[in-house]
User: Fold these one by one.
Assistant:
Number 1:
Amino acid sequence: AITTRSGLVTEGPTVPNPSKPVNPEEDECVKETYTDPNHAEYNIKVPPPPPVQKPKPSIQ
């Protein structure tokens, strides 16, 4: 028996076995993401962080 943090008790593995193995050669989503040059460009380029604006001191 497996007891989770929430107190749930289950028998056997908590993760069900996938009905079919995921094959990267057959998976269209994976192939499109890793072989499309347009997507590869965007994944590499990271925009610079926005400049931090310091709050102006309030004059009283």
Number 2:
Amino acid sequence: GTAALATGDAAASASSLTTSSVSTGVTHSSEYDVYVVAEDALGNFQASATRVDVTTAADATPPTFPSPPTESSVADSRFDVTVELNEGGKVFYVVVADGAAAPSVSQTIA
């Protein structure tokens, strides 16, 4: 068979819903087949796995700064800018003279 992207198990009881979250090995805007097999308390397994088709949602929300970017290690001709994002991503920057017009997003990422 194919290598599993994620595996797991969860305790389940009769007549109640059981939820198991999968977040490892999956990415946004992707299709997956999840196969589920039940086992009872005596070790009896279902004869075949039941397939669930899953399409993960698109990541439509841009990252944010939980706290504002800060400067550090300021010297006469250099400085560092430190940022923290709420999710993995990439940071772009443009340095302009004090009082100059702020660049647009497209100018910053150019």
Number 3:
Amino acid sequence: IHADGMSLVIFSRKFCPKALRERVATTDLVHAAAKRAEETGSRFYFLGGSEEVNRAAVEEMQRLYPRLVFSGRRNGYFSRAEEEAILADIVASRTDILWVGFGIPLEQRFVSRNLDRLSGVAVIKTCGGLFDFLAGKNSRAPQWMQDMGLEWLYRAMLEPKRLGKRYLLTNPIAIYSLLKHRFAASGQGG
């Protein structure tokens, strides 16, 4: 389980025999993955965001990680009719790590709908607004807020209408998934 939110970590500490050790923000994870991909030759594909944001995110990653290979990139504005060609491009370009940034719940639906067509891709990571951060469109919380697990609060203050609803809807779903995993692992049902 990748805990991108602090609530999941706190909940796991209280209710799971094996707690999640820490929160790993996707905005940090992408950098660790890029460093490793430079060493291994793994290929990234960025799918999502506006054309401007997507292009700027790729350019920023290439600036930071000059040996990082991008197998491709595509903005997130396309029709279902175009989806098949995009999937074919992702697979044909030998993508190792696909980053899907459409926002919740669109990115989860896209991945669920197309998982079987992406069988050659080693890792598929939904990443929400990651491309906006990489492109410099959105800023991260001050470091002290990140360290205290309060980045969600900073973001909610910047975008209360959009993110308040998101946190109210997604946190219960994440907690349900964690409980289901806990009970399945302990043999108590699920």
